[in-house]
């Protein structure tokens, strides 16, 4: 992979990742395309620009870690890891099939270069803080990034972890809330409203950055601000669009857990040409 | 023989106390050991560790779910976390996290559950853990240890540190009778035979090991030769020693401070059904929750004592 800070280059990678997401979930006939598409720019900026990592040495000790706590968005992670060179691109379409390394939710037994097996919501922030605490204890400078779903943070464990992170000043951890406003059963505001969300995180002692999660320079700037923030962990409240990049999937609750049909895949790929 | 003395067993430290001391001892040698606590350090005895190694001690507040997954994160970054709470809390409030962040990916987390069984006494059923063998034992890859006394606990902690993979250690609140001589060598995963015997086998774990030894003495007075096995490792279970006991003595009693339906007895019955079917009687808590009382009063009231073990042995022998 070629690391880059160029927003244009990053946008090109992001588009390629979107194409994989559509194709994989279409081929699998199941999966979660909407919440994968909303996270594309953030994941792309992390892997291609921000994180210290090397697909040739996936376990190098000083690597930055990324945990996809919203494990159902596995397609965005698989597409990014494959494009980066961790795993094969050509088998992405085996997503969710028996024996595939591309399991329904990220599974470290099948892809050892993953940082965590996820899929049960609410757990990734605790894992990230544990990793951050270990790094600090060792005097090491690597950082841990964890992406949370907006629906996911309805889990009580997130707020247990949020208290822990600020109390223990784990400032080498960055959480990102992929705030696409939709969850499985519908709009977040109709299931369990999260607002005022920035106020909640501030009250829990976190440094909060609110941004457009599809604006690549804004995402880059937010991660830089997080790195410069000492004494408290940072959370990015990333406003995103579920299904982003495919007109008929955008903001459509149906595409939380329903894949595009063959015709829809074709249409989507045209839009992502 | 590994046993200290027949019948009149001397009391040693509580296994939770022994755990707290052994952890400090282990942590002096191994800088990777860290502790996660949920506001019970003075009860689980990890406060000894906190005093010695404040930087390696993580206070999580009363938040067990985060505590367990935090431990998993620490382990994934190379630490050896001991996640400590009452057994009743860490296994129930932290179960999902034990399943998904520890057992499923096979992460090197050590879980210590203190205040197990009904012998915690006055605090009553909300604090009593009588489901812990079922819960911890349900998790693939977990080793489940249940040391009978301070000597066994000390060995268990040292073993858990060296073992790569998830471990649950069960500890008790009251002082525990000394079953072992100091320095006894343990092989975890293998039953410890404490008495030879040919007529019946008394299988105990935790506090009930001492009761089994006392029961063997009672039976000896009647001319009955009772073998005594300490199952300090609930999982993986030593099927071989149990099958051998079934073949050589023809009848067994399993005694534990746990629900009978889902504890060691159920596991022993499964092992014997596979390898060497034999009549088995069960001593434990029968399908109910206990109540407040003194530790000794509760053990008497719920029938977790040597006379009940001896009576169960007579029944088992009669069923041969």
Describe this entry's structure for a reader.
The complex is a heterodimer of chains A (273) and B (320). By secondary structure, chain A is of the alpha/beta class. Chain A has one domain: Rossmann fold, CATH 3.40.50. Chain A contains ten helices and seven strands. Chain A has helices spanning 7-28, 34-37, 40-50, 74-84, 124-137, 156-167, 188-191, 197-203, 216-228, 262-271, and strands at residues 65-68, 144-149, 173-179, 182-183, 186-187, 207-212, 234-239. Chain A is globular. Chain B has two domains: 12-177, Rossmann fold; 192-318, Rossmann fold (3-Layer(aba) Sandwich), CATH 3.40.50.920. The mean pLDDT of chain B is 96. In chain B, the strands form three sheets. Chain B has a seven-stranded mixed β-sheet with strand order 3-2-4-5-7-6-12, with helices on both faces. Chain B has a five-stranded mixed β-sheet with strand order 9-11-10-13-14, with helices on both faces. Chains A and B meet through helix 5 and helix 6 of A and helix 4 and helix 6 of B.
């Amino acid at each position: 992979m070629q690391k880059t800070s160029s927003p244009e280059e990053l946008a090109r990678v992001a588009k390629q990742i979107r194409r994989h997401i559509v194709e994989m979930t279409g081929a699998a006939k199941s999966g979660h395309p909407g919440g994968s598409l909303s996270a594309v720019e953030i994941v792309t900026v992390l892997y291609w620009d921000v994180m210290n990592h090397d697909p040739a040495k996936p376990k190098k000790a000083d690597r930055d870690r990324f945990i996809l706590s919203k494990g159902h968005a596995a397609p965005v992670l698989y597409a990014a890891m494959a494009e980066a060179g961790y795993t094969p691109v050509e088998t992405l379409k085996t997503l969710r099939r028996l024996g595939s390394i591309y399991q329904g939710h990220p599974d470290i037994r099948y892809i050892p270069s993953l940082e965590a097996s996820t899929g049960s919501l609410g757990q990734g922030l605790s894992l990230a803080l544990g990793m951050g605490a270990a790094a600090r204890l060792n005097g090491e400078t690597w950082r841990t990034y964890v992406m949370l779903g907006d629906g996911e943070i309805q889990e009580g464990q997130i707020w247990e972890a949020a208290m822990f992170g600020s109390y223990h000043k784990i400032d080498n951890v960055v959480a990102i809330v992929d705030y696409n406003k939709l969850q499985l059963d519908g709009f977040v505001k109709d299931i369990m409203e999260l607002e005022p969300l920035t106020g909640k995180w501030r009250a829990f002692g976190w440094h909060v950055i609110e941004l457009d999660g599809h604006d690549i320079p804004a995402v880059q700037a937010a991660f830089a601000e997080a790195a410069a923030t000492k004494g408290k962990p940072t959370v990015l409240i990333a406003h995103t669009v579920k299904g982003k990049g495919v007109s008929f999937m955008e903001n459509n609750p149906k595409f939380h857990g329903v894949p595009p049909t063959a015709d829809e895949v074709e249409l989507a790929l045209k839009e992502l040409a | 023989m590994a046993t200290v003395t027949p019948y009149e067993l001397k009391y040693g430290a509580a296994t939770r106390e022994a755990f707290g001391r052994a952890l400090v001892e282990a942590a002096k040698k191994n800088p990777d050991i860290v502790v996660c606590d949920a506001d019970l350090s003075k009860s689980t005895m990890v406060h000894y560790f906190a005093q010695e190694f404040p930087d390696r001690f993580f206070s999580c507040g009363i938040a067990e779910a985060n505590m367990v997954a935090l431990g998993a994160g620490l382990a994934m970054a190379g630490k050896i976390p001991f996640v400590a709470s009452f057994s009743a809390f860490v296994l129930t409030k932290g179960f999902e996290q034990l399943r998904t962040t520890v057992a499923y990916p096979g992460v090197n987390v050590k879980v210590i559950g203190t205040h197990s069984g009904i012998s915690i006494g006055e605090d009553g059923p909300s604090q009593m853990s009588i489901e812990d063998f079922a819960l911890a034992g349900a998790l693939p890859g977990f080793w489940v240890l249940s040391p009978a006394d301070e000597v066994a606990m000390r060995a268990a902690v040292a073993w858990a540190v060296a073992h790569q993979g998830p471990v649950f250690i069960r500890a008790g609140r009251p002082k525990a009778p000394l079953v072992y001589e100091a320095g006894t060598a343990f092989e975890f995963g293998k039953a410890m035979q404490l008495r030879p015997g040919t007529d019946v086998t008394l299988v105990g774990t935790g506090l009930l090991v001492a009761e089994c030894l006392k029961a063997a003495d009672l039976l000896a007075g009647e001319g009955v030769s009772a073998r005594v096995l300490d199952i300090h490792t609930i999982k993986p279970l030593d099927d071989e020693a149990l099958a051998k006991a079934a073949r050589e003595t023809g009848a067994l009693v399993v005694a534990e401070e746990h629900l009978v339906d889902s504890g060691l007895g159920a596991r022993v019955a499964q092992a014997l059904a596979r390898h060497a079917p034999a009549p088995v009687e069960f001593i434990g808590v029968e399908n109910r929750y206990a109540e407040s009382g003194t530790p000794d009063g509760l053990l008497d009231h719920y029938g977790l004592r040597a006379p009940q073990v001896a009576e169960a042995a007579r029944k088992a022998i009669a069923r041969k």
